[in-house]
Amino acid sequence: MKSQDSISINADRKRVFAVFCDLDKAAANVSAITRIEVLTGPSQLNLGTKWRETRTMFGKEATEEMWVTGYEQDVSYVAEAESRGTHYRSEYRFTPEGNGTRVDMTFEGTPLTVGARLAGILGALFAGAARKALHQDLVDLKRACETA
């Protein structure tokens, strides 16, 4: 599954990047996240930061370990995870747009096992709901960025 989305935020790129990378406030800023535990590295995302994230998805809590594999201050970051035989990769790019910032997000799940490939066939039924959930994260973070 691959999903791409973008959102325009009425705040400068430095602020937007800082809000998106702030694990200490992630549970307050993103409605689906219930808990964050930083495992290694700084809580302000940087290359090598690893954390455990608990969020509500499809009415159930799920916890995943994630880590930063790419990072360019105020420009982009990549977070990855592996769960249930699938490798996940999320990339966020931050581009100045007028007086604000455009955030482009790409999310991709690559099955690594036969079981994950079979589950992916069934998972296609939930792709729309997953896209909505990812978009809601962007909307929640937009609100946090634009709030003084």
Structural write-up:
With 148 residues, the chain is an alpha+beta fold. The protein has a single domain, classed as START domain (Alpha-D-Glucose-1,6-Bisphosphate, Chain A, domain 4). The chain is 28% helix and 47% strand. The chain has a seven-stranded antiparallel β-sheet with strand order 1-7-6-5-4-3-2. Helix 1 packs across helix 4. The termini are far apart.
Helices and strands, in N-to-C order?
A: EHHEEEEEEHH
Q: What would you give as the CATH superfamily?
A: START domain
Q: What is the percentage of strand-forming residues?
A: over 45%
Rg computed from alpha carbons, rounded to a whole number of angstroms: 15 Å
Known CATH architecture: 2-Layer Sandwich
The CATH class assignment is: Alpha Beta
Form type: globular
**What's the mean pLDDT score?**
89
Low-confidence stretches: none
Helix content: 25-40%
Number of strands: 7
- Decide which structural class fits the backbone: alpha+beta
How do the strands of the widest beta sheet line up side by side?
Answer: 1-7-6-5-4-3-2
Number of domains: 1
Organism: Mycetocola miduiensis
InterPro entries: Polyketide_cyclase/dehydratase, START-like_dom_sf
Protein name: Polyketide cyclase / dehydrase and lipid transport
